[in-house]
Structures are given as C-alpha cells and as structure tokens.
Amino acid sequence: MFTGFCTRLPVFSPTQGHKIEGTNIGRLFGTNPLLEQDALEAQLKAVSSPLILHTATHGFFLADQESEDGEPGQELRTIDNLGMQRLSGAGIESPMLRSRLALAGANTWVNYGDLPPEAEDGILTAEDVTGLDLTTTDLVVLTACDTGIGEVKTGEGVFGLRRAFVLAGAKTLVMSLWKVPDLPTQELMVDFYERVIAGAPKADALREAQKELRKKYPHPGDWGAFICQGDPGVLKYDGGLSGGWGTTNS
C-alpha cells in the first residue's frame, strides 16, 4: 500500500507544488492520493502499515519558550504570526508535542472554527505519530519543512517527528533539515521515487536525485535539505500497491 498525504493551507503559505507532487507520485504507483480537504487526521491515524507513507504538507517545530525568570516556559501562548493561541496548555514544552504536521482543517482549528470529527484538530504531533501502526512500513517520506528537526536530549538523540516515526515502526525515513522550496522539492521527489522503483537503494536514489536536481538548481538550499535515515537498501516493492491511497488538504 502507498499512502500519501499532501496539504495546502492558507495560513501555511499555500502552494500548488504539494498537489502536483502527490498527484505525480500517486501516478507512479498507480494509486490516487488523498488531496487537500481529504487529508484528514483520522484517515492517517487509521493507516495500517503501508509499504510507503508519503506526506507533502507543512511541517513546523515550535521552539521552547522562556518564562520571565529565563527558565523554559510551561506553555506556549502565541506562536509567531500563526495566531496559534490554541496551542497553549500545560505540557506543551515536550518536543514530541512541539513537532507538528498540518493536515486538513488546521487553519480552521487555529481560527476557532468548527471541524468534522474525522478532521480532529488538523494538526498531527510527533506524539500522535508514535501511536501509528507502521510496523511493516519500509519507507516514510516527509516533504515538509523542518521534519528532521527536534530537541536534542543528551545520550538519547533528537526528539521530534524523526524519533516518532521510528518508534511507530518505520524502517527508513526521508526528511528535511530546513525549510524546503516548493517546485524543486516536488521535482526531487518524483525523481527519487522513479529511481527507487527502478531498483536503486533508497539512500543512493535520494543522493542521485539530489545530484541531478543540482544541475538545474545550483543553490544547496533547493536540493540539500533532505536526508535518509535508517535502512538505506532497496525498497521491498514487487510492482504493485493494491489498496493504496494518498492525500493533500485545504
């Protein structure tokens, strides 16, 4: 099964590239991605160990806040310019709550609007991810900004989406270390999957796709953000993804 989630939200600078990315990658695997308003949080949480889980959406990591005495704060009141007062609450200082992906309805929730139950709050935290069933998932690709970012815990590594998907069972992660551009990213991902389908090891496929994209976009900011963590080998793909589906949101 291929599962792809691609999100386009006005609050998070809407782009056409996410939709194009989801559509083109879905076409490679012969499956239809869930796009825009269909990229519901409940849908993602109900996924059961797809071979590939692909998300093309907006990701963000909320920096820890300091209280007036200079110590880490116990809650986040207002986040940057996103108007996210509803992110406040005791315990929000946890990096597993501050690493997030936006899904369908996130803008509505941020602005205190009403959402259908299947949308939940439209924001998937790293803590939510740890509850997913990815025990036989070979590859998770997160084409969103800062998906590899988190809080470093001495002796324990980086806490955030990176740690969460590993805990959920994913064998390999492809994720970003900084904010990624729209058009070059969707071109990179299509090239990456074409190489993976052709039998190239996952880490090699990413590296070669980045080298090829560099010819068109020389600046490393356009192609260098993505890294491969975990099993670098060949995807266990037999040419079919029965029952596959994917998505984007609005």
Oligomer: single chain
Helix content: 25-40%
Count of discrete structural domains = 1
How would you characterize the largest beta sheet? 7 strands, mixed
Continuous helix count = 9
Structural class: alpha/beta
Mean pLDDT across the residues is 76
Rg, rounded, reads: 17 Å
β-strand percent reads 15-25%
CATH topology: Rossmann fold
Q: Would you count the extended β strands for me? A: 12
Reading the helices and strands in chain order gives EHEHEEHEHEHEEEHEHHHEE
Shape: globular
Distance between the termini: 24 Å
Please report the first level of CATH classification, the CATH class.
Answer: Alpha Beta
**Which stretches are poorly predicted, pLDDT < 50 over at least 5 residues?**
65-92, 152-158, 242-250
Q: What would CATH call the architecture? A: 3-Layer(aba) Sandwich
Can you give a write-up of this model?
The chain has a single domain, classed as 3-Layer(aba) Sandwich (Rossmann fold), CATH 3.40.50. The protein is globular. It is α/β, with parallel strands linked by helices. 30% of the residues lie in helices and 21% in strands. The chain has nine helices and twelve strands. Residues 65-92, 152-158 and 242-250 have low confidence and may be disordered. Helix 1 (17-29) packs parallel to helix 7 (182-197) and helix 7 (182-197) crosses helix 8. It has helices spanning 17-29, 41-45, 95-98, 106-110, 126-129, 161-168, 182-197, 202-216, 220-223; strands spanning 2-7, 32-35, 52-56, 59-61, 99-102, 123-125, 139-142, 150-153, 157-160, 172-176, 226-230, 245-249. The strands form three sheets. Strands 1, 2, 3, 7, 10, 11 and 12 form a seven-stranded mixed β-sheet that branches. A three-stranded antiparallel β-sheet has the order 4-5-6.
